[in-house]
Amino acid sequence: MDYIAGIDIGNSSTEVALIRNNNGYEFVATSLFRTTGLKGTVKNVPGVINALEQAAEKADIAVEDIDRILLNEAAPVIGDVAMETITETVITESTMIGHDPSTPGGVGLGTGTIVDITADREAITEEDAVIVVVPAAVDFADAAATINEWAEHAIDIQGAIVQKDDAVLINNRIDQDIPIVDEVTKIEAIPRGQPAAVEVATEGSGQTIDQLSNPYGLATLFDLSSEETQKIIPVSRALVGNKSAVVIKTPAGDVEERTIPAGSLTIIGEHGNSVSINIDQGADNIMTQIDELWPIEDIQGERGSNIGGMLSRAREQMGEVTGQDHSEINIRDIMAVDTLVPQKVEGSVASEHSMETAVGLAAMVKTSELPMQQIADEIENRLETEVNIQGIEANMAILGSLTTPGTDVPFAILDMGGGSTDAAYINGNHEISSIHLAGAGDMVTMLIASELGLDDRELAEGLKKYPVAKVETLFSIRHEDGTVTFLDEAVDSETFGQVVLLKGDGEMEPVGIDESVEKIRRTRRHAKEKVFVTNAKRALRQISPTESTRYHSFVVMVGRSALDFEIPEMISDALAEYGIVCGRGNIRSTTGPRNAVATGLCLSYVGDQAEFDVSVPNGLASAVGLTELTGDKQS
Amino acid sequence: MTDQQAKPVASDGVPQIVIRYVENEHSLVEYIEYGIEEEGVPWRKQPLEDDADQPKNSATELAYQAASDSGLKIGIGVSRDKTLTLHHARLPIDKPVLSVIDPTNSQARTTGTNAARLAKRMPLRVID
């Protein structure tokens, strides 16, 4: 018996399809292993051997029993991602913005001059109205007693700023209703003697503050000129959605939102035109330029900027793989997405954050070819098995995808991976065109990480892959869609009340960030839409003969990201508007969107050799570089 | 549940957290109360006369009794040996939410905070 293995080395996983010749070929095993090393280098070989061992074990044979190994001519592309923050909020002196403790006290809005609770009462009687500051050293009961005593002496106390988590305790012990904001950690940084405003929204009704989050509200309270009102906009914007806030006006202090020089891109079209564009002009402008100059010859980034660093890193990596000088390697596509990134405010007093604008970028490097022969030789050495380089990745993917029930030429495939979004189209004459675009799963992970302010890449990857839920009681969780699941066992106290990742097998992992289920879901879906829906449309437009997305009728989605629990339906939804039938592939009716290329390799090899009972359309053999396929003989 | 109702409510009409404690530990109870009050959840106290002959008064048992008695199913027990336990009536009696032996005032307050956060379905604070 002959055993033949088709192997697809991808950016992140290596897939194997194993066939057996037993008076006619049949598929006997499929396997998958993490790709070792950078795709297209001999470091891939250990991963290949692992994947082969898995497949052999499933087929109940030894790796040595495999008679022939088929490799694909892998698409020579590498993707990389980077983020450029283009604004920065700077506070000189201490103007406090955006503090939102979980239990503020009292309700309403108060304005007055800041005085310390330990100050001498006699000395402050001349002030019109005051806001008291309560440092941690002062007990809440003493603070409340002082406030009551001052009030008796006709001091108009308008609000309080408290260092410890004591706002409700103080509020319950004083005779008047004033807004109290607590958990202000760096209370010593608050300038005494300056005018300030404290606002706490009505509790329970889900309301948020409305005066301090409105620039004209601030202008009214602090008597600002129109010029000053413009400057206060970052403050008011940072307070939108808060249940409580404090704003302090300082004479020399200032809140400034400034634009960081973010570097520029030079896009060079294949027709020789080139355009330079500053990243701070935003993603839309960058993408418009890319579209106008398409096809792209090369893209250069300004030295010293994040984008410049990312582009030269990608060039160097590709240079290492192919042994070319990195000046010979071109960036063939770039994808830009506008995003907001929470950043710690410079000069804050309670670890406030502001949302800064940023542009996320993915780049795709392409070279003429990868040194696949080196990998083939290395595998041949290790296993003493004949290794063939069987065909081009896109063609093999088309051939493999055609085993999805309900497909026929002409049709297109969308191969959505981690580093790039690839597409291929086969027309009625079995001519295949293909394209590789920057931006895929890794970019989604980056966007989720930066928008939620996560340093932990693994957590961001988890938030991309799995839905979240909130542990509502010791015995139940509420899912994203509002449904509730009851648990067999009580959750432990560390998990209670947390947002958790649901990792399929019933395992719950606390996310450990202070964001709601709704916010996480919205961020995740936005990131996926911005990257995958945009790229699906872009790719389909560029591989159609008429440069129109609408040209296509049938699209099959394959690759790692086609396994995602929501990306395929997002793309199907978006493409349904164009009247396109789009769905997740099901290779050989069994493997889902996985294994298309490995399957295609086996099919193309067998098509070369002998009878094979897999339904592949007539006349396809020539299209994928073969003499004929089974189907051709019958026609 | 209204968060405005921060002061202890005498009537048993609203669901409350119950603190069951042996009487000579009332100073710890005061800090537990501060924790609950700051979070704005109603509670009531059940002092027990300290009876050295009663071996049943382990903090866990007291907490479980308190939880069973509570409209919120949440109880805190303070035993004679200065152990603080937070319990929920739906949990097995030997598996309380948390327990602290010989707590500081601040740990007692955080236990109160956590009892309230359990009622408000909010993540618990770490007791350090």
UniProtKB/TrEMBL annotation, chain A:
Please report the stretch or stretches of sequence annotated as the DD-reactivating factor swiveling domain. 91-255
Q: Per the UniProt entry, what species is this protein from, by scientific name?
A: Halalkalicoccus tibetensis
For this UniProt entry, which segments traverse the membrane? none
Descriptive protein name: Diol dehydratase reactivase subunit alpha
Annotated Diol dehydratase reactivase ATPase-like domain ranges read 277-605
Q: Supply the InterPro entries for this chain.
A: ATPase_NBD, DDR_dom, DDR_swiveling, DDRA, DDRA_swiveling_dom_sf, NA-bd_OB-fold
**Highest taxon of source:** Archaea
UniProtKB/TrEMBL annotation, chain B:
Name of the molecule in the record: Glycerol dehydratase reactivase beta/small subunit family protein
Pfam families tied to this protein = Dehydratase_MU
What InterPro entries does this protein's entry cite?
B12-dep_deHydtase_bsu, Dehydtase/Dehydtase_re
The organism's superkingdom is given as Archaea
Gene3D superfamilies found in the cross-reference section: B12-dependent dehydatase associated subunit
